[in-house]
Known about the structure:
Layout: H1 6-9, H2 22-34, E1 40-44, H3 51-63, H4 77-83, E2 90-94, H5 101-110, E3 121-126, H6 133-144, E4 150-156, H7 164-167, E5 171-174, H8 180-194, E6 197-198, H9 200-209, H10 214-228, E7 231-232, H11 234-241, H12 246-258, H13 261-273, H14 278-297, H15 309-319, H16 324-343, H17 347-359, H18 367-384, E8 403-406, H19 408-411, H20 417-426, H21 429-432, H22 441-444, E9 459-462, H23 482-487, H24 506-520, H25 522-528, E10 532-536, E11 540-546, H26 550-556, H27 558-571, E12 577-583, H28 593-613, H29 616-625
Parallel strand pairs: 1-4, 1-5, 2-3, 3-4, 6-7, 11-12
Antiparallel strand pairs: 8-9, 10-11
Helix pairs in contact: 3-4, 5-6, 8-9, 9-11, 10-11, 12-13, 12-14, 12-15, 12-17, 13-17, 14-15, 14-16, 16-17, 18-29, 24-25, 24-27
The structure holds zinc ion (ZN).
Amino acid sequence: MSYLVLARKWRPMTFDDLVGQEHVSRTLSNAIVSGRIAHAFLFTGVRGVGKTTSARILAKSLNCEAGPTPKPCLQCPACTEIAASNDIDVQEIDGASYNGVDEVRRLQESLPYRPSRDRFKVVIVDEVHMLSSNAWNAFLKTLEEPPPHVKFIFATTEVHKVPVTILSRCQRYDFKLISSSSIAKQLRHVLDQEGIAADDAALGLMAREAAGSMRDAMSLLDQAIAWGGDKLVGEEIARVLGIAGRGKLLELAQAMVHGDAQAVLMIVAHLADQGFDLVQVARDTLEVLRDLVVVKVCNSPDSLTDLTPEELATMRALVADARGEDLIRLHHGFSTGFDQVVHAPQQRSALEMLLLRLVFRPPLLPVDDLISRLDGIERRLVGRGAALPRSGGPVALRNHRGATAFEPTERTESVSAGDRAVMAARAQPSAAVKDPAPLSRVAAHREIHPVADTEPWVAETVVDSSPIDMEIPVQPTVGTAPSERSQEQPVRRATEPAPTEPAPGSEAAWRAILETVQQQNAALAAVLEHAIPVEISPHAVHLAIEEGSFYADRARDDQAVDLLTRVVRARFHASTEVSLSLLDTGKARGRTLFDINKEQRLEQERKARAELESHKLVQAAIESLGARVHLIKLDE
Ligand SMILES: [Zn+2]
């Protein structure tokens, strides 16, 4: 007895049998019932979703002795011959090979004649986008003036390659990918009829692997039956098909969620030893991580995942004590690293390291925990005489990741007696600010609000326990007025040769000149910041700039010299001499305004950092939350 492959044996014979394309079945059935049947149909969709099968069903529906009917009898000569592909009036053409000039001409010449037995001449063209231009022209001629007894059914996987002239004359039907659950259901139906047992894991595995194609699913089922006989078991099928079973992937996900590094490595080793394609394993793992998130956040995830009931139960148990944010973080981390695994020369170690990075992710801290820590800080500060400012005040804990706002006024219902005492104490402004002396200069000039202020303060805090960034803007502590700057002497070692030094007060004058230049040409001002002011006086303005530097050419540009001369003479005298000399590369030793500004800025930052780190609030945050001073932001 010859073995008929399942895909052919179980090919749908009527629209009712067609799985996963209900929208197509319904529309075609309605058209047939109402008698509004188009001359040409175009079926589009990826391979294996039922396009050719639907074309044959449609041909039967049109030509059945009992028709036209959406439910062909499957008994009459037309029905049986179409099913066997030997009906003389129904011609099936493969677009890829049907390109001979003679073939096309013969078809074209035959179409005007009435069908020999059936109601319609039906021309089914598979992979129609592969047709030659000759063939297209032949079809187009017939499509433009179709004889009433001719119907065309075109099928294609690449609709964008079909000429618009053809497209516009067809009724188009888009076939969808078939859902895994629909495929699994159909596989179960077939196996029941064939008398073969299978567990849900085996069916789920094949359905997922078929990726929306019923034909692929049937062919996988053929392989599985050839290997597994009368009983199909998930883990065994996985090995036969070379894909990791969900069970193993769930173990892997569990190890990641629980942070079990050894288990992760053991599972990868097991999968590698079994010869699984690790890129495929990574892809499947990503899908499992996605499903975990869905199961965690949805009450009824059934329609959103293609999990078997057992897999769903396992996932539910796994995510029960996991946090949604943590699962999302795992998925995000894994998908970010996925490409590295794909392109890595050593895919196994790349996958292992990606998994370990996720295993060792920093733990999430519950918000309640952070709140109580902040309460602790606040209480200590109240005791020492400082209080947290309100939101919008100069000092705010700020979160760069997901922020959680909370208001202490809402929590007062459940505070302990001890807390009440503290709150009563801080409700008195005098108690809160009775000892302002220890406050550093950074905080001293700010307005400190007692916490008992009627407006609720809102602090933002992080959920992640990785170091918290606390931004506290600080006023520059070094004056920026030119008069102050000019009194600063550059620090240099005694062994260095004395640089060309401008006369006292000349730095302020140079600064003023550049400010005027900047108003007219900001780019030139930026260039001149890199020039050394050798002499700045009513008698002469002499600049030096390093030869060959980026700035030299720009500073010596005619327009630049003109502008500078105008500004200088407007400030000093119409006869003030303006000159610019070049210094040999590496010989420039004077200080440019750029150098001076940079030094001053660094000095400001150093002072601000020192002051901040001695501030009580910052110290408390460092102690209690493991915070660190990350960024010092100086006001402009
Ligand atoms: Zn029939």
